[in-house]
Write a structure and sequence with these properties.
Structural class: mainly alpha
Number of strands: 0
Number of helices: 2
Helix content: 40-55%
Order of helices and strands: HH
Radius of gyration: 14 Å
Length: 65
């Protein structure tokens, strides 16, 4: 039920100092997620996104093992 896609019009690869320095430079896998602000305005929205992101992060972590 999520609408996902590439970060357009820019890829984000050149603008992610933290990920570039702390993950890519050390060869560590990482996950970057952006959420539109209009989708995270209320406490109910926050709870929904927290649950979704916890699930996604766990799945990614499990896949990397």
């Amino acid at each position: 039920g999520l609408n996902v896609g590439d970060n357009l019009p820019y890829s984000g690869r050149d603008l992610n100092y933290t990920m570039n320095r702390h993950a890519e430079a050390a060869g560590r896998p990482y996950l970057g997620i952006e959420i539109r602000q209009d989708l995270a305005q209320t406490q109910a929205d926050h709870a929904r996104w927290a649950a979704l992101l916890a699930d996604i992060a766990q799945r990614v972590a499990s896949a990397l093992r």
